[in-house]
Amino acid sequence: MTARTDEPAARAHVVRTARSLFERGLTHGSTGNLSVRLADGSLLLTPTGSSLGTVQESELSRTDLHGRHLDGARPTKEAFLHAAFYRARPAAHAVVHLHSTHAAAVSCLDGLNPADALPPLTAYYAMRIGTLPLLPYHAPGDSGLEPLAERTARTHHAVLLANHGPVVAGPTLETAADAIEELEETARLHLLLRGLATRPLTPEQAAALTPTST
Ligand code: ZN
Questions:
Q1: Domains observed in the chain
Q2: Distance CA 202, CA 209 (A)
């Protein structure tokens, strides 16, 4: 088995990113969780019941690709979603899930397009997210969502969980965090613009952009 020489740096990176997301109000209370894939294929995740604002490097959990607990604190109860994304996307090395206010608000709207919940209002959104499937409501921790999450993640690196929030995978923690922040900002723009006529990017304009976070 590959030695986990990358683990100390990964622990520091997860905690630094968690703090940054929390301190900037991108998630609240004990909501939100993030993970990275280590060199040996195991996953390092934020633990259950922890705040991203105060979680410590020594408190992180490790699981295998099927969400089975290996060591550390008990993982977030949403660990199965992270594991589903890593199984579906071999190039993904990080997953971020937030209950960020505007994306969570959009996830509660009636009449969303389940194939793509947000319009491509800006080029940065089109490059970092592209399309955003909406996964139907499940109670937090209900692993009944796992098969659908895994199937959807094969073709999409970002999803919106109905009445809940977004999950975004990326090749690095920076790209996943950047992308989920772009999603949150676009959700905010979408809500600001509700009731106004908007002109999203055309399919041709979106297709001409190079994806940056897949
Ligand atoms: Zn959640």
A1: 7-207 (3.40.225.10)
A2: 11
